Amino acid sequence: MVKAIIAPSVLASDLSNLSNECKRMIGDGADWLHMGGSHFVPNITMGPPILTWVKKNVPDIFMDCHMMVADPAKWVPDVAKAGGKLYTFHYEATDAPADVIRLIHEHGMLAGLAISPATPSSVITEELGNAADHLLVMTVVPGAGGQKFMAECLPKVTDLRARFPTKNIQVDGGVGAGNACQCGHAGANVLVAGTAVFGAESPKTTIGEMRAAVDGEFAKAK
What sign does the dihedral 149-40-34-136 (CA atoms) show? Predict the structure, then answer.
């Protein structure tokens, strides 16, 4: 079981600073960089041109691209060309999630399927869950950083872990060292941390604490 701590979506004042922040987070122990692209939520963040810049300047980066877009199929080719490794889209954004997963795989990327807080985990059927490489449970309402962690979403993680024991299951939203144990206990092995890491006195310490918390919960479950 992979226990990856994913570094946050990075908001920077310029592209050179963005690249430097990505390098800093990898140096502080992050396994992946979580890059958010948004077109169905109010805050537009990282699209393919920015992903291309980051990949050029941090060539070894694993870009986890969380595409909160209204037409997820449309952006697959551009994200793949920009260097995306994992393309996660929202179940709520398409009537044909299986087709989007297939398209992502055809472009050489891993496919992730996300659900928002109001969406039950039951929408991820056995067919969809088995087709996807990665499942994401949002623990805040998509669209803004710094929101309060919604612990009431964690039973969805537990359900998905029970049904898809070998999958990467990610939690995104309000995650930090203080609730990493809860996430790991529920069955999440991939955590996205934004404010908790960038606002920390020592991001390296915070990332280490989160990783240890998840590792400890999975060790208990064995």
Answer: positive
Task: Sort strands 134-138 and 168-172 into parallel, antiparallel or unpaired.
Answer: parallel
pTM, full prediction:
0.88
Whats the size of the chain, residue-wise?
222
What is the C-alpha separation between 114 and 152, in angstroms, rounded? 16
Q: Domain containing 89: what range? A: 4-221
**pLDDT, tens digit (0-9, with 9 covering 90-100), for 68-99:** 888 899 999 999 999 999 999 999 999 999 99
Per the structure, the count of domains in the chain is 1
Lookup result for tokens 């041109």: 49
d(CA 27, CA 159): 34
- CB burial of residue 11 (10 Å; 0-12, 13-18, 19+): middle
Tell me how far apart the alpha carbons of residues 42 and 198 are, in angstroms, rounded to a whole number: 22
| CATH, residue 193 | 3.20.20.70
